[in-house]
Amino acid sequence: MGEEINDNLITTGSGTASDSSIEGNGDEVDGGVKYYTLEDIRVHNMSNDTWLIIHNKVYDITGFLEEHPGGEEVLLEQAGADATESFEDVGHSTDAREMLQQYFIGELHMDDRKKEKPKEVQDTNSGESRFPRDYGLRRKWKFVGLDLVSFHQC
Ligand code: HEM
User: Fold this and answer.
1) Using CA positions, which residue lies closest to atom 40 of ligand 1?
2) Complex confidence, ipTM
C-alpha cells in the first residue's frame, strides 16, 4: 500500500575503506554510515513509515509514534523532513535526546546539509575599544599622580 521497503540497503561488510561507498536507492554507505539525501527521506512521511532529521542525523521513528509523550501528531507533521527546530523548541530533556540513538539509521547527505554560518571573528572591535580604555586609565593615573603631587606640596 505504497509502503516503502528500506531494508534492502546493502552494506559491503568491509567497513574500512571510504571508497567502499555504494549507491542503492539513492542511499550511500560509507564506512558503515548510511547517508540519505533529502529526496530519500522525504518519502518516509507516513504513519507506518516515518523518518525524521534532527541535527543532520536521520531517525526511523515509526515504532516510536505511539510512545511519544508529546503525541504522534507533532511527529507526523515533521515526517520526512528536518525536525531539528521543532525538536529544540520543545526543549527536550536529556532522556529524550538519549532515546534518539535507538532510532538512528544514518546521516543526512553532506550536499543537503544547511551551510553552517562561519563564526564571527569577535576581536574586530576589541582593537578599537582597547585604546580608549587604556587612554582612560592613563588619564586616571595621571590625575591620581597630580593629586599626589598637590597633596605632597601641602
Ligand atoms: C525522535 C524524536 C523525539 C523523541 C525521542 C522525543 C521524545 C520526547 C520525550 C521523552 C518527551 C517527554 C518530555 C522530555 O523528556 O523532554 C517528549 C515530549 C514532547 N515532545 Fe518529543 N520527542 C521527539 C521529537 C519531537 C518533535 C519533532 C516534536 C515537535 C514537533 C516533539 C514535541 C514534543 C512535545 C510537544 C512534547 C510534550 C512536552 C510537554 O508536554 O511538556 N517531539 N518528547
Assistant:
1) 70
2) 0.94
